[in-house]
UniProtKB/TrEMBL annotation:
Keyword Transport: no
Cited PANTHER family: S-ADENOSYL-L-METHIONINE:CARBOXYL METHYLTRANSFERASE FAMILY PROTEIN
Keyword Membrane among UniProt keywords: no
Region (Disordered): 1-20
Pfam families: Methyltransf_7
Organism, scientific name: Trema orientale (Charcoal tree)
Domain of life of the native organism: Eukaryota
Record-level Gene Ontology MF annotations: metal ion binding; methyltransferase activity
Entry's Gene Ontology BP terms: methylation
Keywords: Magnesium, Metal-binding, Methyltransferase, Transferase
This protein's name: SAM dependent carboxyl methyltransferase
Protein backbone atom coordinates (compact mmCIF):
# COMPACT_ATOMS: atom_id res chain seq x y z
CA UNK A 1 0.00 0.00 0.00
CA UNK A 2 1.43 3.35 -1.03
CA UNK A 3 0.45 6.86 -0.07
CA UNK A 4 -1.12 8.75 -2.94
CA UNK A 5 0.61 12.00 -2.04
CA UNK A 6 -2.23 14.15 -3.36
CA UNK A 7 -2.41 16.49 -0.39
CA UNK A 8 0.97 18.20 -0.24
CA UNK A 9 -0.81 21.47 -0.98
CA UNK A 10 -4.00 20.89 0.99
CA UNK A 11 -5.61 24.18 1.93
CA UNK A 12 -4.92 25.40 5.45
CA UNK A 13 -7.79 26.88 7.45
CA UNK A 14 -6.40 27.62 10.92
CA UNK A 15 -8.70 28.76 13.69
CA UNK A 16 -7.91 32.01 15.50
CA UNK A 17 -4.64 31.61 17.38
CA UNK A 18 -3.34 33.42 20.43
CA UNK A 19 -5.15 33.91 23.71
CA UNK A 20 -7.30 36.95 22.89
CA UNK A 21 -11.09 37.38 23.11
CA UNK A 22 -11.66 35.96 19.60
CA UNK A 23 -9.19 33.07 19.97
CA UNK A 24 -10.06 29.41 19.69
CA UNK A 25 -8.34 28.94 23.04
CA UNK A 26 -11.02 31.08 24.69
CA UNK A 27 -13.98 29.95 22.57
CA UNK A 28 -13.99 26.18 22.18
CA UNK A 29 -16.21 25.01 25.05
CA UNK A 30 -18.54 23.13 22.68
CA UNK A 31 -15.63 21.06 21.39
CA UNK A 32 -14.41 20.54 24.96
CA UNK A 33 -17.86 19.27 25.92
CA UNK A 34 -17.61 16.58 23.25
CA UNK A 35 -14.21 15.46 24.55
CA UNK A 36 -15.47 15.37 28.14
CA UNK A 37 -18.47 13.32 27.04
CA UNK A 38 -16.20 10.79 25.34
CA UNK A 39 -13.99 10.10 28.38
CA UNK A 40 -15.77 6.97 29.61
CA UNK A 41 -16.18 5.68 26.06
CA UNK A 42 -12.44 6.04 25.45
CA UNK A 43 -11.70 4.27 28.72
CA UNK A 44 -14.03 1.40 27.81
CA UNK A 45 -12.63 1.23 24.27
CA UNK A 46 -9.04 0.87 25.44
CA UNK A 47 -9.84 -1.60 28.22
CA UNK A 48 -11.88 -3.78 25.89
CA UNK A 49 -10.17 -3.47 22.51
CA UNK A 50 -6.47 -2.70 23.05
CA UNK A 51 -4.39 -5.87 23.41
CA UNK A 52 -1.46 -4.53 25.41
CA UNK A 53 0.80 -7.61 25.23
CA UNK A 54 0.19 -8.49 21.60
CA UNK A 55 0.48 -4.94 20.31
CA UNK A 56 3.60 -3.97 22.28
CA UNK A 57 5.33 -7.27 21.55
CA UNK A 58 4.98 -6.59 17.82
CA UNK A 59 6.30 -3.02 18.10
CA UNK A 60 9.90 -1.85 17.76
CA UNK A 61 9.89 -0.34 21.27
CA UNK A 62 8.21 -2.68 23.73
CA UNK A 63 7.79 -0.16 26.55
CA UNK A 64 6.72 2.89 24.53
CA UNK A 65 3.28 4.03 23.42
CA UNK A 66 3.05 6.43 20.48
CA UNK A 67 -0.10 8.56 20.24
CA UNK A 68 -1.01 11.24 17.70
CA UNK A 69 -3.77 13.83 17.97
CA UNK A 70 -4.71 15.00 14.48
CA UNK A 71 -6.15 18.51 14.24
CA UNK A 72 -4.90 19.49 17.69
CA UNK A 73 -5.44 23.25 17.21
CA UNK A 74 -4.11 25.46 20.02
CA UNK A 75 -5.26 23.64 23.17
CA UNK A 76 -6.39 23.07 25.86
CA UNK A 77 -8.90 20.56 24.46
CA UNK A 78 -6.20 18.42 22.89
CA UNK A 79 -4.48 18.03 26.27
CA UNK A 80 -7.71 16.80 27.85
CA UNK A 81 -8.17 14.23 25.07
CA UNK A 82 -4.59 13.00 25.44
CA UNK A 83 -4.93 12.81 29.22
CA UNK A 84 -8.05 10.65 28.85
CA UNK A 85 -6.19 8.20 26.59
CA UNK A 86 -3.04 8.09 28.73
CA UNK A 87 -5.04 7.44 31.91
CA UNK A 88 -6.99 4.65 30.21
CA UNK A 89 -3.80 2.98 28.98
CA UNK A 90 -2.24 3.27 32.44
CA UNK A 91 -5.31 1.59 33.93
CA UNK A 92 -5.11 -1.14 31.30
CA UNK A 93 -1.45 -1.63 32.16
CA UNK A 94 -2.24 -1.98 35.88
CA UNK A 95 -4.95 -4.53 35.19
CA UNK A 96 -3.03 -6.62 32.67
CA UNK A 97 0.59 -6.08 33.83
CA UNK A 98 2.22 -6.64 30.42
CA UNK A 99 4.59 -9.63 30.71
CA UNK A 100 7.60 -7.90 29.14
CA UNK A 101 7.68 -5.09 31.73
CA UNK A 102 9.58 -5.60 34.96
CA UNK A 103 7.26 -4.89 37.90
CA UNK A 104 9.72 -5.87 40.59
CA UNK A 105 10.51 -2.23 41.32
CA UNK A 106 7.18 -1.05 42.74
CA UNK A 107 8.11 2.61 43.01
CA UNK A 108 7.97 2.89 39.22
CA UNK A 109 4.35 3.90 38.85
CA UNK A 110 4.51 4.37 35.08
CA UNK A 111 6.78 1.85 33.31
CA UNK A 112 5.27 2.74 29.95
CA UNK A 113 6.74 5.82 28.22
CA UNK A 114 4.17 7.86 26.32
CA UNK A 115 5.19 9.93 23.31
CA UNK A 116 2.44 12.26 22.07
CA UNK A 117 2.52 13.95 18.68
CA UNK A 118 0.36 17.04 18.20
CA UNK A 119 -0.59 17.53 14.56
CA UNK A 120 -2.21 20.39 12.68
CA UNK A 121 -1.59 22.48 9.57
CA UNK A 122 1.64 24.45 9.24
CA UNK A 123 -0.27 27.68 9.87
CA UNK A 124 -1.61 26.46 13.22
CA UNK A 125 -0.52 28.48 16.26
CA UNK A 126 1.85 25.89 17.74
CA UNK A 127 3.44 28.57 19.95
CA UNK A 128 0.23 28.99 21.92
CA UNK A 129 -0.24 25.21 21.99
CA UNK A 130 3.14 24.41 23.49
CA UNK A 131 3.12 27.43 25.78
CA UNK A 132 0.12 25.92 27.53
CA UNK A 133 1.36 22.32 27.80
CA UNK A 134 0.30 20.89 31.19
CA UNK A 135 3.36 21.08 33.48
CA UNK A 136 2.43 17.81 35.23
CA UNK A 137 1.83 15.81 32.05
CA UNK A 138 2.91 12.16 31.99
CA UNK A 139 4.10 12.10 28.40
CA UNK A 140 6.74 13.50 26.06
CA UNK A 141 5.40 16.01 23.55
CA UNK A 142 6.28 16.91 19.95
CA UNK A 143 4.65 18.89 17.17
CA UNK A 144 4.07 17.44 13.70
CA UNK A 145 2.87 20.09 11.24
CA UNK A 146 1.15 19.06 8.01
CA UNK A 147 -2.17 17.95 6.53
CA UNK A 148 -3.65 14.87 8.15
CA UNK A 149 -5.01 13.86 4.76
CA UNK A 150 -1.57 12.54 3.89
CA UNK A 151 1.23 10.52 5.50
CA UNK A 152 2.98 12.05 8.51
CA UNK A 153 4.59 9.09 10.31
CA UNK A 154 6.63 5.95 9.49
CA UNK A 155 4.98 2.60 8.77
CA UNK A 156 3.52 0.68 11.74
CA UNK A 157 4.58 3.39 14.18
CA UNK A 158 1.52 4.66 16.08
CA UNK A 159 -0.50 2.76 18.68
CA UNK A 160 -3.29 5.31 19.02
CA UNK A 161 -4.79 7.94 16.75
CA UNK A 162 -7.16 10.55 18.10
CA UNK A 163 -9.02 13.30 16.28
CA UNK A 164 -11.81 15.43 17.65
CA UNK A 165 -13.89 18.02 15.77
CA UNK A 166 -11.40 18.13 12.88
CA UNK A 167 -12.40 15.66 10.16
CA UNK A 168 -15.41 17.75 9.11
CA UNK A 169 -12.91 20.30 7.74
CA UNK A 170 -12.37 19.49 4.08
CA UNK A 171 -8.95 19.54 2.42
CA UNK A 172 -10.37 22.06 -0.06
CA UNK A 173 -13.60 23.61 -1.28
CA UNK A 174 -15.14 21.33 -3.93
CA UNK A 175 -14.07 22.88 -7.24
CA UNK A 176 -17.53 22.52 -8.81
CA UNK A 177 -19.23 24.91 -6.40
CA UNK A 178 -17.18 27.92 -7.56
CA UNK A 179 -17.25 26.98 -11.26
CA UNK A 180 -19.76 29.16 -13.13
CA UNK A 181 -20.12 26.47 -15.82
CA UNK A 182 -20.90 23.68 -13.32
CA UNK A 183 -24.44 22.62 -12.33
CA UNK A 184 -23.08 22.69 -8.77
CA UNK A 185 -22.16 26.40 -8.91
CA UNK A 186 -23.25 27.75 -5.53
CA UNK A 187 -24.13 31.29 -6.57
CA UNK A 188 -25.31 33.58 -3.78
CA UNK A 189 -24.46 31.07 -1.05
CA UNK A 190 -21.36 30.20 0.95
CA UNK A 191 -22.42 26.73 2.04
CA UNK A 192 -24.34 23.59 1.10
CA UNK A 193 -26.94 23.45 3.91
CA UNK A 194 -29.83 24.97 1.96
CA UNK A 195 -28.31 24.66 -1.50
CA UNK A 196 -29.30 22.37 -4.38
CA UNK A 197 -28.61 18.65 -4.56
CA UNK A 198 -25.64 19.12 -6.90
CA UNK A 199 -23.92 21.34 -4.33
CA UNK A 200 -24.61 18.89 -1.52
CA UNK A 201 -23.25 16.02 -3.62
CA UNK A 202 -20.07 17.96 -4.39
CA UNK A 203 -19.49 18.49 -0.67
CA UNK A 204 -20.35 14.88 0.16
CA UNK A 205 -17.98 13.55 -2.52
CA UNK A 206 -15.16 15.77 -1.27
CA UNK A 207 -15.67 14.54 2.30
CA UNK A 208 -15.62 10.92 1.13
CA UNK A 209 -12.36 11.50 -0.75
CA UNK A 210 -10.81 13.23 2.27
CA UNK A 211 -11.86 10.62 4.82
CA UNK A 212 -10.58 7.84 2.54
CA UNK A 213 -7.22 9.63 2.32
CA UNK A 214 -7.11 10.08 6.10
CA UNK A 215 -7.85 6.39 6.69
CA UNK A 216 -5.42 5.25 3.98
CA UNK A 217 -2.60 7.21 5.62
CA UNK A 218 -3.45 6.05 9.13
CA UNK A 219 -3.64 2.40 7.97
CA UNK A 220 0.02 2.67 7.01
CA UNK A 221 1.05 4.45 10.20
CA UNK A 222 -0.81 2.32 12.79
CA UNK A 223 0.47 -0.94 14.20
CA UNK A 224 -1.78 -3.97 13.77
CA UNK A 225 -4.32 -3.79 16.58
CA UNK A 226 -3.83 -0.04 16.95
CA UNK A 227 -6.91 2.08 17.67
CA UNK A 228 -8.40 5.17 16.04
CA UNK A 229 -10.62 7.24 18.33
CA UNK A 230 -12.68 9.85 16.49
CA UNK A 231 -15.21 12.50 17.47
CA UNK A 232 -16.99 13.78 14.36
CA UNK A 233 -19.75 16.43 14.27
CA UNK A 234 -22.53 14.85 12.23
CA UNK A 235 -26.04 15.14 10.89
CA UNK A 236 -28.21 12.22 11.92
CA UNK A 237 -29.42 10.06 9.05
CA UNK A 238 -33.02 11.09 9.71
CA UNK A 239 -32.24 14.81 9.46
CA UNK A 240 -31.50 17.14 6.57
CA UNK A 241 -28.24 19.13 6.53
CA UNK A 242 -30.29 22.27 7.15
CA UNK A 243 -31.57 20.76 10.43
CA UNK A 244 -28.09 20.89 11.95
CA UNK A 245 -27.81 23.98 14.17
CA UNK A 246 -24.22 24.79 13.18
CA UNK A 247 -25.07 24.32 9.50
CA UNK A 248 -27.91 26.77 9.94
CA UNK A 249 -25.56 29.29 11.54
CA UNK A 250 -23.06 29.09 8.68
CA UNK A 251 -25.93 29.58 6.24
CA UNK A 252 -27.05 32.58 8.30
CA UNK A 253 -23.53 33.99 8.01
CA UNK A 254 -23.90 33.70 4.26
CA UNK A 255 -27.11 35.69 4.33
CA UNK A 256 -25.26 38.47 6.19
CA UNK A 257 -22.68 38.61 3.39
CA UNK A 258 -25.44 38.75 0.77
CA UNK A 259 -27.03 41.65 2.68
CA UNK A 260 -23.68 43.42 2.64
CA UNK A 261 -23.39 43.00 -1.14
CA UNK A 262 -26.72 44.81 -1.51
CA UNK A 263 -25.29 47.69 0.49
CA UNK A 264 -22.12 47.79 -1.57
CA UNK A 265 -19.92 46.71 1.34
CA UNK A 266 -18.83 43.47 -0.34
CA UNK A 267 -18.71 42.60 -4.04
CA UNK A 268 -21.13 39.99 -5.32
CA UNK A 269 -18.26 38.25 -7.08
CA UNK A 270 -16.42 37.87 -3.77
CA UNK A 271 -19.42 36.13 -2.20
CA UNK A 272 -20.02 33.89 -5.22
CA UNK A 273 -16.39 32.72 -5.14
CA UNK A 274 -16.41 31.91 -1.41
CA UNK A 275 -17.57 28.66 0.19
CA UNK A 276 -16.90 27.27 3.65
CA UNK A 277 -14.88 24.00 3.42
CA UNK A 278 -16.79 22.17 6.15
CA UNK A 279 -19.04 19.12 5.80
CA UNK A 280 -21.03 17.33 8.48
CA UNK A 281 -21.52 13.70 7.39
CA UNK A 282 -24.21 11.28 8.49
CA UNK A 283 -23.23 8.18 10.49
CA UNK A 284 -24.12 6.00 7.49
CA UNK A 285 -21.68 7.96 5.31
CA UNK A 286 -18.86 7.48 7.83
CA UNK A 287 -19.65 3.77 8.10
CA UNK A 288 -19.76 3.27 4.32
CA UNK A 289 -16.46 5.10 3.68
CA UNK A 290 -14.70 3.19 6.45
CA UNK A 291 -16.02 -0.07 5.03
CA UNK A 292 -14.66 0.77 1.58
CA UNK A 293 -11.22 1.41 3.10
CA UNK A 294 -11.10 -2.17 4.34
CA UNK A 295 -8.16 -1.81 6.73
CA UNK A 296 -10.19 -1.18 9.88
CA UNK A 297 -12.94 -2.91 11.81
CA UNK A 298 -15.59 -0.64 13.27
CA UNK A 299 -15.66 -1.57 16.96
CA UNK A 300 -18.06 1.17 18.00
CA UNK A 301 -20.04 4.00 16.43
CA UNK A 302 -22.50 5.87 18.59
CA UNK A 303 -23.87 9.32 19.31
CA UNK A 304 -22.20 11.23 22.14
CA UNK A 305 -24.42 12.46 24.92
CA UNK A 306 -23.19 16.02 25.47
CA UNK A 307 -26.35 17.43 27.07
CA UNK A 308 -24.70 17.43 30.51
CA UNK A 309 -21.63 19.25 29.26
CA UNK A 310 -21.07 22.92 28.43
CA UNK A 311 -22.84 24.01 25.28
CA UNK A 312 -23.40 27.56 24.04
CA UNK A 313 -25.98 29.00 26.43
CA UNK A 314 -25.92 32.65 25.38
CA UNK A 315 -25.64 34.88 22.34
CA UNK A 316 -22.07 36.02 22.95
CA UNK A 317 -20.75 32.47 23.28
CA UNK A 318 -22.47 31.34 20.07
CA UNK A 319 -21.08 34.26 18.07
CA UNK A 320 -17.56 33.99 19.48
CA UNK A 321 -17.53 30.22 18.90
CA UNK A 322 -18.16 30.72 15.19
CA UNK A 323 -15.85 33.73 14.96
CA UNK A 324 -12.96 31.77 16.49
CA UNK A 325 -13.47 28.97 13.96
CA UNK A 326 -14.21 30.92 10.76
CA UNK A 327 -12.71 34.40 11.05
CA UNK A 328 -9.31 33.41 9.62
CA UNK A 329 -10.98 31.85 6.60
CA UNK A 330 -13.24 34.87 6.08
CA UNK A 331 -10.38 37.34 6.56
CA UNK A 332 -8.26 35.62 3.96
CA UNK A 333 -10.98 36.02 1.34
CA UNK A 334 -12.77 39.25 2.27
CA UNK A 335 -10.12 41.17 4.19
CA UNK A 336 -10.06 42.25 7.82
CA UNK A 337 -12.00 45.49 7.27
CA UNK A 338 -15.48 43.90 7.23
CA UNK A 339 -15.07 41.42 10.10
CA UNK A 340 -16.63 43.49 12.89
CA UNK A 341 -19.52 44.56 10.64
CA UNK A 342 -20.11 40.98 9.51
CA UNK A 343 -20.15 39.48 12.99
CA UNK A 344 -22.30 42.32 14.36
CA UNK A 345 -24.88 41.57 11.66
CA UNK A 346 -24.60 37.87 12.40
CA UNK A 347 -25.08 38.52 16.12
CA UNK A 348 -28.24 40.52 15.43
CA UNK A 349 -29.70 37.76 13.26
CA UNK A 350 -28.97 35.10 15.87
CA UNK A 351 -30.59 37.28 18.55
CA UNK A 352 -33.72 37.74 16.43
CA UNK A 353 -34.07 34.01 15.83
CA UNK A 354 -36.07 31.74 18.12
CA UNK A 355 -33.92 28.74 17.20
CA UNK A 356 -30.30 29.13 18.17
CA UNK A 357 -30.50 30.15 21.84
CA UNK A 358 -33.09 27.52 22.77
CA UNK A 359 -31.27 24.39 24.06
CA UNK A 360 -34.17 22.22 22.91
CA UNK A 361 -33.40 23.17 19.31
CA UNK A 362 -29.73 22.22 19.53
CA UNK A 363 -29.36 19.59 16.82
CA UNK A 364 -25.62 19.24 16.34
CA UNK A 365 -24.84 15.66 17.36
CA UNK A 366 -21.34 14.33 17.76
CA UNK A 367 -20.43 10.82 16.68
CA UNK A 368 -17.91 8.71 18.61
CA UNK A 369 -16.15 6.24 16.31
CA UNK A 370 -13.75 3.50 17.39
CA UNK A 371 -11.73 1.75 14.66
CA UNK A 372 -9.19 -1.05 15.05
CA UNK A 373 -6.38 -1.74 12.57
CA UNK A 374 -6.90 -5.10 10.89
CA UNK A 375 -4.02 -7.57 10.40
CA UNK A 376 -4.23 -7.24 6.60
Amino acid sequence: MESKGNYEFAESHPVNGGEGPYSYLQNSTLQRGAIEASKEMIKEAILKHFDMNKTLDSASFSNQIFLADFGCSTGPNTFLAVQNIVEAVQLKCQLEKPHHLDHSDDHHQNPIIFQVFFNDHFANDFNTLFKSLPPTRKYLAAGVPGSFHDRLFPNSFLHFVHSSCALHWLSKVPSQVTDRTSPAWNKGRIYYANAGEQVKKAYSDQFAEDLMSFLRARAEELVVGGLILLIIPTVLDILLPSDNTINMEIDLMGSCLVDMTKMGLVSEEKVDSFNVPVYFPSPSEVEAITGRNGHFSIESMEKLNIENHVLLPNLQMRVLYLRAALEGLLQKHFGNEIMDELFNRFSNKVAQSSIFLNPENHKSPFLFVLLKRNPH
